[in-house]
Input
Amino acid sequence: MKKLNFERPLIKKLNIGPSHKFGLKTEFEAFTHIDDVPVKDLLAEYGSPLFVLSEKTIRSTISEAKRAFETRYPKVQFAWSYKTNYLNAVCSLFHQEGSWAEVVSRFEYDKALSLGVDGNRIIFNGPEKTEDDLNLAVENGSLIHIDHFDEMYTLIDIAPKHKKKPKVAIRVNMDTGIYPMWDRFGFNYENGEAWEAINRIMMSNKLDMVGLHTHVGTFMMTAGAYGIAATKLADLAVNLKRKYNHDLNYIDMGGGFASKNTLKGAYLLGTDTSPSFDDYAEAITTSLINSQLDPERMPMLILETGRALIDDAGHLAGTVLANKKLSDGRHATIVDFGVNILFTSFWYEHKITPAQEFSSHSETTSIYGPLCMNIDQIRESVYLPAMKKGDRVVVSRVGAYNMTQWMQFITLRPKVVMIDKRGQVHIIRNNESNSDITGLEKIPEHLFLKK
Ligand SMILES: *Cc1c(COP(=O)(O)O)cnc(C)c1O
Output
């Protein structure tokens, strides 16, 4: 008979908090494999911590989203939101699945071009586009989404220099019943600014008005907000047609669909409460189809979905460094990944699961990262089986924003791998070395250390 492993004794204080009327949040069944590859082997081969993306999950999620919209609306186009995850392999995968590129800076714009995306399949959003950026975007026939009047006047000013009319849309913000309202981007619907912007564009005769855009917020838990937004954009399009007899090529509903993560302070798990792609698709397409838009010339529906398409596909695997007791007797676990690479731990209660079999002893613990910073807390309080030094854990649903918002701080950032559909593991971003970081630095000569 195999000798049982020693496990330290536990004294459990009964805490109120983690339970609700459906019982304890069950967060545990060992997470031993990601797409059939053992977590243990991944960490042994590529180091700990390690970001692991599943190509299979990305592909099945985008197909599910496409199905939800394409079965309800004649013309649908997804555009991958670069800032959600702009690792080259990830963008390439989305482009292979037919997505256009949605970029919000020159850095992202150049990245899309270098990945081979046609200029006319790049949507250029955001408040910062220099005159130089705009000239390039016009030259390439990209879709420029105007954020403010200053940008519009710059475009009207530079337009005569170009052979082609700049292709533009305006970003519209509006009241969708969700507060605080995102009114810092684009032109407001309710106060008439959006309609004014449309009139100025049409009367200038220098720009080709091809679409309308909105991005109402992020992690929107009510699909109905999109229904309201689509009705308001359709209303603008109908008025545009009436006044100028001009048809739009597209209506772009932006991103913001919630992923299945659980927001901090939420009573129920995100897996139970986030709307599905079908819910969002139903709300948006119902509004467009029931509007006064000409049924013969329905605009293409563009979606810039980010987090909902990739969160599930990302995992962060890591290792337990130590256990300790806090001064008030609470238990704490220290792991080898910090909030600097898991930025989303500031707003999600990330699901963390041991990657090996465990006994039935569970306890409430705080999970801390390795940084010498008090804020480096991954989970404040989570009910987990007892783990010991060297045990491995997997954090689920980390595919969105972490690989773009992460920062190099105290430690070096780890590798990112992608598991393909046949179970082959590919490094898609190497771990950093000291020279990657210090290579950019210069020491003024008078500060050289004299030996
Ligand atoms: C960030 C962003 C998106 C993607 O948002 P998600 O919440 O990740 O879906 C789409 N469009 C614009 C304009 C954005 O700024």
